[in-house]
TrEMBL record:
Transport found in the keyword field: yes
Keywords: Membrane, Transmembrane, Transmembrane helix, Transport
Gene3D superfamilies: MetI-like
Protein name in UniProt: ABC transporter permease
Similarity remark: Belongs to the binding-protein-dependent transport system permease family.
Subcellular location: Cell membrane
Membrane topology: Multi-pass membrane protein
Length: 235
């Protein structure tokens, strides 16, 4: 077991030297989380826009479900994905279990409800503000959604960043479906848990530092986009 001072020294050295093992873990984490975020946005934004602009039977129930799914327990999502991708599961023939693809699927399921629910709120507020103007212009539903998305583009980007922040910090689901295999499915969160249990605090702290920098970067980007959105709102 390393002392705290020694662990911090090793961590800083690993980060500054660009250690190959550390960088491989970081790049895999970013690949999995960015891919999951993009897929979640491609699925979540249209769903949020549909619910925000249309009235239909069962809309209230769908809203409740969307909001409830924002709090999905990661380990439950991981278990459900595992059951579907295991050899005995309906998708076992694809051989995706313990691969980055399985981790992307789990993260997408986790963050898509967040993206859908938050984008729905953003677009619904804008729709309420511009509804009369849209009716006077006789816009089609597609044109209405396009106008809302463009007007709320900066806020929607913050929604996407929130989804990414949730994905990159995930540990439970990705450990279940990824298996934390070295140089294959080991991401920052699972590596931190493993290296801490092994007493290798230097690498764990190094990965923790990188993860914190990413988290701070995401929060700074969200803050910047909010300021940009406010400036555009007053133009």
């Amino acid at each position: 077991m390393q002392s705290i001072g020694e662990a911090f020294s090793i961590a800083i050295a690993l980060v500054l030297s660009g250690d190959s093992d550390l960088l491989a873990i970081v790049f895999l984490s970013l690949y999995v989380s960015v891919t999951a975020t993009l897929i979640a946005c491609l699925l979540g934004f249209p769903l949020g826009a549909l619910v925000a602009t249309r009235q239909f039977r069962g809309r209230g129930v769908l809203l409740v479900v969307m909001n409830a799914l924002m709090g999905l327990p990661p380990v439950v999502v991981g278990l459900l994905v595992y059951l579907h991708l295991s050899r005995a599961g309906p998708l076992g023939f694809l051989g995706l279990l313990y691969t980055p693809t399985a981790m992307i699927i789990a993260q997408t399921i986790l963050i898509m409800p967040i993206v859908a629910a938050l984008s729905r709120q953003v677009l619904e507020d804008l729709h309420g503000e511009y509804a009369e103007q849209f009716r006077s212009l006789s816009l089609t539903p597609i044109q209405t959604i396009q106008a809302l998305v463009w007007d709320g583009r900066f806020t929607l980007l913050t929604v996407a960043l929130a989804g990414f922040g949730r994905a990159v910090a995930e540990v439970g689901a990705v450990m279940i479906v990824g298996g934390n295999i070295d140089h294959l499915t080991r991401v920052m969160t699972t590596a931190i848990a493993l290296e801490t249990s092994k007493g290798n605090l230097g690498l764990a702290l190094g990965l923790g530092i990188v993860l914190m920098v990413i988290a701070l970067g995401v929060n700074a980007a969200v803050h910047g986009l909010r300021l940009t959105a406010r400036r555009h709102a007053y133009v």
